[in-house]
Design goal:
Blueprint (H helix, E strand, L loop, with lengths): L11 E3 L24 H8 L3 E6 L4 E2 L2 E2 H7 L3 E7 L17 E2 L6 E4 L17 E5 L10 H14 L4 E4 L35 H10 L5 H11 L11 E4 L23 H10 L19 E4 L7 E3 L17 E5 L4 H8 L6 H9 L19 H6 L4 H6 L4 H6 L4 H10 L9
Parallel strand pairs: 1-10, 2-5, 2-8, 5-7, 8-9, 9-10
Antiparallel strand pairs: 3-4, 6-7, 11-13, 12-13
């Protein structure tokens, strides 16, 4: 069954007018509409079809969840897919989630962060098209871009049309960090991109498809649908609903926390720099009101900032719970934190924490194999050099030099797939 017709190319980027749905009440957001807010654009494409939706608690249309919004508008949603933290966004980081029925809607929820990472043919049986709408924070090791990639591959391989409702990237105003070496590929880093890649979800999707970074079968399907001879009178395959009023200079504050341990824009701005502490014995602030804004350890100097992490919703299991830790508090106003980050992945805090840590052989968490190249820190860094550079006492400037020329090469690739005005 043919669902929609592409008019001139695989990527038909919608730019027509939309309803005036407010994006949020955050400063600087008043002129921004996420793709999901533009109901008048995409609703006609969904009507009359059965739909499967990949969504979480960030998938909001104003003050109402996308799923609830579409149900009220008569859209037939057959299945919901949920990522890390679950469809309602309450599970711990890394917590495996099983399938269940959503109590509010009665729709079956298939977890894509449990026993599997992508929909099966059985999961999408009876589904005409798939919709993806999840808020990203623009950081490589934030797993939702890995979920997007798996979802795209499944959609392409199973010949299911895919619509992405794009959302602004709160870290979309710069590009920085080491580019992932694919020898260290994992679910917290799958593709050769830097820690901060400066793209929205849809731009990133456009890139991984355009660069043939998907599975062999998905790449072949993509190539088939985008060829000139198949671009007219063929099934709609890949649709992007753009944001309105957004560009890569926009300082966008999320109206909904994207995950339990990113409670505000301050944590989101610091996350690219302080998430590295997840691969060390230091607390990264989980179990406090300021995750990724505070970090420390009981053995660090006692004249530093002190805090005690304890279990809370979304951080039931983590490091050093109930122990008094000494370290740093980087919190402040959004403007102060943004200035402290200075459009860079900051290594100074990691370098200083290592310098002050008394038992340096135990600073990085080793896996059961005892090999640092298999450690979580290496997966976060995307290379097996950063931990060694820290141990060798390399300066931040010297470490940054080692990110070239791959970082500059990535920036050139990125430019090909931008759909919004860039920051430079």
């Amino acid at each position: 069954m043919r669902l929609f017709i592409t008019l001139s190319s695989l990527f038909f980027l919608v730019s027509c007018a939309a309803q005036n749905q407010p994006a949020s009440d955050k400063p600087g957001n008043s002129k921004v509409q996420a793709g999901a807010d533009r109901i008048n654009v995409y609703l006609p494409m969904l009507k009359g079809h059965t739909v499967g939706i990949f969504a979480n608690q960030t998938s909001m249309v104003g003050n109402t969840h996308l799923v609830d919004t579409l149900l009220k508008l008569g859209i037939d949603i057959k299945v919901i897919f949920g990522p890390e933290h679950g469809f309602r966004g309450t599970a711990d980081a890394g917590e495996k989630i099983g399938n269940y029925t959503d109590s509010k809607t009665g729709i079956p929820v298939v977890s894509l962060y449990g026993s599997k990472r992508r929909p099966s043919a059985e999961d999408v049986k009876g589904v005409d098209l798939l919709v993806f709408d999840i808020q990203d924070v623009g950081v490589r090791f934030y797993t939702f871009i890995s979920s997007l990639e798996e979802f795209m591959e499944a959609a392409f391989e199973l010949s299911k049309p895919l619509m992405i409702l794009d959302r602004p990237n709160p870290n979309g105003h710069y590009v920085d960090g080491p580019v992932l070496d694919t020898r260290y590929r994992s679910f917290v880093g799958r593709q050769p991109i830097p820690v901060v890649y400066g793209m929205t979800m849809a731009e990133y999707a456009f890139m991984i498809a355009g660069e043939n970074w998907l599975s062999e079968k998905a790449n072949a399907k993509y190539a088939y649908y985008r060829t000139a001879e198949n671009s007219v009178d063929t099934p709609f395959h890949f649709q992007i609903i753009k944001c309105k009023g957004y560009d890569h200079k926009t300082k966008y504050e999320l109206p909904v926390r994207p995950s339990p341990n990113l409670p505000n824009i301050q944590s989101i701005y610091l996350y690219p720099s302080t998430c590295f502490f997840e691969g060390t014995v230091l607390s990264e602030g989980r179990g406090t009101s300021k995750p990724f804004q505070v970090f420390g350890h009981p053995s660090l100097p006692r004249n530093l900032f002190s805090f005690t992490p304890n279990p809370n919703e979304g951080a039931k299991n983590s490091k050093l719970y109930g122990q008094l830790c000494y370290g740093w508090d980087l919190s402040g106003t959004p403007a102060e934190v943004l200035a402290a980050v200075d459009n860079k992945v900051q290594l100074k805090w990691l370098i200083e924490a290592y310098r002050l840590f008394p038992d340096k052989d135990k600073f990085f968490i080793l896996p059961k194999s005892g090999k640092m190249e298999e450690s979580f820190f290496t997966k976060l860094a995307g290379n097996n050099e950063l931990w060694q550079q820290i141990k060798e006492g390399k300066t931040e400037q010297d470490i940054r030099k080692s990110w070239e020329p791959k970082l500059s090469e990535f920036k050139k690739i990125r430019k090909k797939y931008l759909m919004y005005d860039d920051f430079e």
